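for the record, two folds in this file. i put them one after another cuz i was lazy. first one right below, seq on top, structure tokens after. the second one comes after a little note so u can tell where it starts
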Amino acid sequence: MSATINQHIKLAISEAHHAKLREHLFPGDGLEAAAIVLCAQSAAHRYVVNQILLVDHADCRVRSPDRICWPGSFIEAAIELAETHALSIVLMHSHPGGLLRFSAIDDESDLDVVPALFEASESPSIRHGSAIMTPDGAICARFYDRQLVTTHVSAVHLAGDELLTWQASEQGSLLPIPMAFSTEMGRHLKSFTACVVGVSGTGSIVVEQLARLGFGRLILIDFDEIEFKNLNRILNATLDDARNSTAKVARFASVIPTYRDDIEVITLKASIATRKGIELAGEADVLFCCVDSFDGRQVCDRIAAAFLQPLFDVAVTIPTYQSAAGVAVGDVCGRVDYVKPGGSTLADRGVYTPEALRREYLQHVAPNELAEQVAEGYIKGVAEEAPSVISLNMRAASDCVMEFIARAYPFRQEPNAERARTQFSLAAGEEEFMGETDFSCALNPHLGRGLIEPLLGMPRFAISEVRA
């Protein structure tokens, strides 16, 4: 087997799958155990765990502290499960001794088994692989192509209450997570890709922070162009941008390289509710939703689940009321939601509802029908937002990025699990938090589906729909 290091493959796993694997692979007897992990692609070089198949301990012919032999029937079962959606098969076993590196025995085993996986696969571009887990839960993995060229996974991501990233050194030890706010944190972030959906009021401020913090790759998605009315709240926007109707994403693509020469900025001038938007967002390690539409939030919600990404959703509002003197400010509010794959979604939390999605749809396609429904009381009124809100946007966007830092480089004294949602009221001078257990959590059928058709489980994004 030959090896290559020019491709950076990443693997993402949900909290629930990781816990199930760890419990099975380390039953407490100090002996190796095995499982098979089926992965879907979320991008050309990013994979997500779709499902797992546990190898019964009693069925293994050999189980010792440094070796395991298990029946081929489990591999046959995995091949059958993987065939429908062309999933990649990753053979995983434990290293009870704690070595986060493949041994010579592991290499020999892969050389025997992996070719058989390719013989059963019809897809010419599919990869299969192997992985190991150590007692602390760390994972090291590698993939093979049909020529058995090896590509080691550069990082394994798990988005739980903390954002865990496992990167192994050549010596087989786990690379440490740097201290929050340190120079080393900035260097560490260079291996991360963030996607920001919506590059306007709060989104432009989020992008500015991520770029200056040190992210190595930014994906910016927004369909809109800069107008004169935007100049009071979009960072880096100029009068010339408004005159020329410059795309919001293009403005940042030109500005960021003026202070970062080691960053890649990828832009898409399109709605996130498109195949291109979904596929591009699927390349990211972390997703920031800075849109003001319910449909946009629903799509981001589905993307985060399908591609096992941590999702940070930010919103601001200024509710008003009718006073004797006229319209008055009722409150000045902001909200940041953190959604972990497999946890409560934005839908579970009521950020958007079927009624809100329908109202928004009618606003676009049937405004007359919408007006009638408002008169009839079926559609609830929406509080207006004042246009001069950059100070409020700054506060909310900072909270959003700080929420990411607190989970990727923990520094809080209280558990992150208690901060699934942060809400603040500047009028009342209050800030409140809601934990994951404060929300109901429905079964999520989209978890870890990656690029399986139809995208996000939504027929409107199927290939046939696009070509029609």
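(here's the note) second protein begins now
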Amino acid sequence: MNRREDSDQLRQRRENLEKLRALDVQPYPHRFEASGTVSAIAAEHAARSGEDLENARPEAATAGRIVAIRSFGKARFLVLSDGKARLQAYVRKDSVSARDFEVVKLLDVGDVVGVAGRIFRTRTDELTVWAARVEFLAKCFEPLPEKWHGLTDIEIRYRQRYLDLIVNPPSRKVFEVRARAIRAIREFLDARGYLEVETPMMQPLAGGALARPFVTHHNALDLPLYLRVAPELYLKRLVVGGMERVYEINRNFRNEGISTRHNPEFTMLEFYEAYSDYAALMTLTEELLRHVAKAALDGREFTFNGESIDFAPKFARVKLRQAVCEAAAKQLDGSVSEAQLRDPEQAAGLARELEIEVTPGAGAGRITFELFEALCEQALVQPTFVHDFPTEVSPLSKQRADDPETVERFELYIAGMEIANAFSELNDPDEQRRRFEEQLAARTAGDEEAHALDEEYIRALEYGLPPAAGEGIGIDRLVMLLTGSPSIRDVILFPLLRPVRME
């Protein structure tokens, strides 16, 4: 459609609105008394036959957006939608007031109207409201796309989400699944004695994750602040305070790149349990995800990127260094040992041999983790717990008693994506300070994602954090899986996009 045609349609629709005003129609009324939504009325009468409806003659009043208009001389058929279902309205000239029929003649596809009358079935068995009254509720000036595939720029779905929801019913279903999934998470955790809490979104230090933060400023206090990258350090303060099981479904902000799997603003579930460890959370995570899938999809199997994913069996478990050894050996057609991965020079040499670029000056632990990201992630399709991470990349995790270079941490991978990150919590304040100081040295050397030294958090640990385990689960990525959505933008109502110049 060229701009001239668009202008002509806009002009015609505005003329129709002026004609409605001339009929003394209030163009934007305050309310409409409905007996039910379009979808509720359609569901209520879906099983009733035409004969039954003719005998009972039930009355209904509903409102929705017009998605189709058909004219037959002295009658009009309006198809109304509430985004979930459609219901036809039949308007005959001799069944409504003269004014109402004139109103109907001035309606355009996209307008919002209310209708009231009796429910019946047409000769083609279409459930329909035989209108006795029609009320104009809002004007649509922009013509709706006739078919969704007529929108060639897929970013219109993200930039104009309201249009996406109007013309693309599957989009709405994605967000209905998202809502059911979040509700199921709350049900699961509440039933196990967890308390839902809220922690600050503006923080004096950006802690709880290795990420680059957004920076803001509080004018009255003349105080620099950071949008939170994670709620972790605040939630663990609550465990110190005696809240033994806490969770938060939170918005986090990370000043990093945008991709099909990353949005600078995203939603996480984080939960913490005293007197537990990372092994117990593996079992809990399996139970949680099965519960969520059952509630959101009425099943534990779904398809993502052409692969069938099953939450029913026990999830696979593999040690991180073991996974790297096996993947590297396969690629090099030789043998690779864990001892090589624990030695900085040998690990760096292995990376060069594999032609994988790693962070300059990184220790053996970071190199091993970066090799894992490059070699292993994409192959983890079915749910897999990758556990026992290098201490170097896990500043908040508790070390294994038998191996100081390894922490009790796991990440859950599904369909090649990291879905969850969990660990036994480091609760030794002296060791935590040492880890923070290592991160501070890395920050001084230029690592913008290194963790800050948080004195207030160390002080909280000095009051005694009991043995505990905590976990974060990415809600957006989980919904991507459950809905088969290829991009994180598909499951966020209003994702961050590059601005478009308005000509």
